Amino acid sequence: MTEVKPEDQGGVTDAILTAIAERAPMEIVGSATMRTIGRPLATPVKLDLSGLAGLNFYEPEELVLSAKAGTRRSAIDELLRGRRQAFAFEPPDLARLLGSNQGGTLGGMIAANLSGPRRIRSGALRDHILGFSAVSGRGEAFKCGGRVMKNVTGYDLPKLMAGSWGTLCALTEVTMKVMPAPETTATLLLFGFNDEDAGAAMRDAMRSPLDIAGAAHLPVDVARASALADIANAGTSVTLLRLEGFGESVAFRLAELQARFTAERSVLDPQRSETAWSEIRDVHMLAAPRERIVWRVSLPPSDGPRAMNHIRTAAPAAIGYYDWAGGLLWVSVPLSEHGSAQVVRGAIPPATGHATLIRGPESLRASVFVFEPLPDPLAKLTQRVKQAFDPSGVLNPGRMYHFA
What we know:
This protein is α+β, with helices and mostly antiparallel strands. It folds into three domains: 49-180, Uridine Diphospho-n-acetylenolpyruvylglucosamine Reductase, domain 3 (2-Layer Sandwich); 184-281, Alpha-Beta Plaits (2-Layer Sandwich), CATH 3.30.70.2190; 284-367, Alpha-Beta Plaits (2-Layer Sandwich), CATH 3.30.70. It has helices spanning 9-22, 73-82, 106-112, 119-122, 157-161, 195-207, 220-223, 229-232, 247-258, 270-281, 304-314, 340-346, 362-367, 376-389; strands at residues 2-4, 26-29, 45-48, 55-59, 64-68, 85-86, 129-136, 141-145, 169-177, 179-180, 184-191, 212-218, 238-245, 265-268, 293-298, 319-323, 328-333, 354-359. It has a five-stranded antiparallel sheet. A four-stranded antiparallel sheet has the order 12-13-11-14. Strands 16-17-15-18 form a four-stranded antiparallel sheet, covered by helices on one side.
């Protein structure tokens, strides 16, 4: 495989034009943390965007940041922490789950549309992209958006880029909205709920006026893998409800939240809250053993317990937990469960959700749909979008879907 590592947008354009001329499809990578998500690629060229790194500008007072797509997220996070700011959508870092020792990049975060536990309050990553620059599969450099949020006329390209997994263009620069970090955090732990009762408790909390910033449920077989003693030593399931904001507000809302439940409970301080939510966000509790398959399932919160029960019944060795108040399931099944795709997708009510294979061997990723199969009308639309951006099919061909 030939590796091309440009250092600016002009170099990216030249690389893609060469790929078109030579009919040599390319795999696009940054730090390659998530390289194993998607169908395996066998391209003759690897386009490495990690050379496009560095800050363009950061205006804390305006809550806006712009950087080149290959900039490491760790550098961005450190910069934001220095000004007590953060990405409101709390993007996960899947490096440990995927067995990578590399930190992710800003462009990879966009391409994968990574959104963490705070999504239920702050929205998804795609809602926080202000603009970007990129090179399409036509070899054409273009830019979209700017420094402020505004109404969209025509195609909302920033949202289209989120979750496109490098199949439409090579991102070169990204401008994001950032938000002030919360002054303090408290997490209420509720012990002993079964999945159905935990789902009801999370939905009740979300319907309250208490501004819940995270709602997750860890069955006992997952809770015992926590790095936090309060959770690992509970000996039972643990349901987590997070509050964020100013100190007096959090204290008041915490008292109100505790009054809503009679279950055994305890409270995590800010430091322990950060530990708990980081391992939920980054899927640390399912990281080992490495040979197990991991699926990510998004569906209506009320359907979560029913879907998890379906999976456990069909695959008794499956384990998993709930985020997004029950609307996101992380599920781990043994490698021996060759029919895991049918099992997991069979648990989702028709036209209500989707499942993505996040970790699995190359042989499995080559034989099943890694991303949710598309109904015919949506598949045709997706194919037309791919044709518009990448008519020669040189960018990550087949990583998401194969079009004849």
